[in-house]
Amino acid sequence: MTESFSTADLVDEHGPSLRVCDTQFRQFGKLTAFTGRVRTVQCYQDNGLVKQLLNSHGDGCVLVVDGGGSLHTALTGDLIAKAAVDNGWAGLVLNGAVRDSATLATLPIGIKALGTNPRKSAKDAEGVVDEPVSFGGVTFHPGDVLYSDEDGVVLLPGTASSE
C-alpha cells in the first residue's frame, strides 16, 4: 500500500485500539515507511518458508517473521529481498537477523530486523505460515494492517483479528 502516515499520528488517532510493538528494530531496505496486510511465518534459524513466501505474489502485504529473536543466522539477504520486491511485497518485519545489509539499503522495500549476521540459515522450510506470532508485547495476526516508519511498528486489527 502506498499512503502517507505517521505511526505517532496513528497512535494519537486510534488510541488503545492500535497495538504498538515494543521491539526496537533497525531499519534496512530503502523504504523507511511502509504499510500492508500482515502475513506471518514462525521459524528458527531456517528461512525456507520465508524464501517460499517471498518468491510468491505478495499483493502489497508485509511479511512478519518470528525468528525467535535469534541473531545466529540471517533470515533474509539480498536475493530473497529482491524476490520480495519483484513479487510485490510491501515490507518485512523480522524478529531475527538479515545479511547483505548494504545491498538491502538499495532495494525499494521496507525491512526491519534486529540486526545483521553474514551466516546463512538452514533451508529446511521448518516452521508455520499464517498463524498468529507474538513478540514485542503484541500479537501479529494474519490480515492485520501493519504500519511501520522511523518511530516503530503499529497494528490495526484486520477483519480476521480478534486482539
TrEMBL record:
Keywords: Lyase, Metal-binding. NCBIfam families: NOT-MenG (TIGR01935), PRK09372.1 (NF006875). The keyword Metal-binding applies. Its cofactor is a divalent metal cation. It catalyses: 4-hydroxy-4-methyl-2-oxoglutarate = 2 pyruvate; oxaloacetate + H(+) = pyruvate + CO2. This is 4-hydroxy-4-methyl-2-oxoglutarate aldolase. It comes from Haloechinothrix salitolerans. Catalyzes the aldol cleavage of 4-hydroxy-4-methyl-2-oxoglutarate (HMG) into 2 molecules of pyruvate. Also contains a secondary oxaloacetate (OAA) decarboxylase activity due to the common pyruvate enolate transition state formed following C-C bond cleavage in the retro-aldol and decarboxylation reactions. The lineage of its organism: Bacteria, Bacillati, Actinomycetota, Actinomycetes, Pseudonocardiales. Its EC number is 4.1.1.112, 4.1.3.17. Belongs to the class II aldolase/RraA-like family. Homotrimer. The keyword Glycoprotein does not apply. Signal peptide: none annotated. InterPro entries: RraA, RraA/RraA-like, RraA/RraA-like_sf. It comes from the Bacteria.
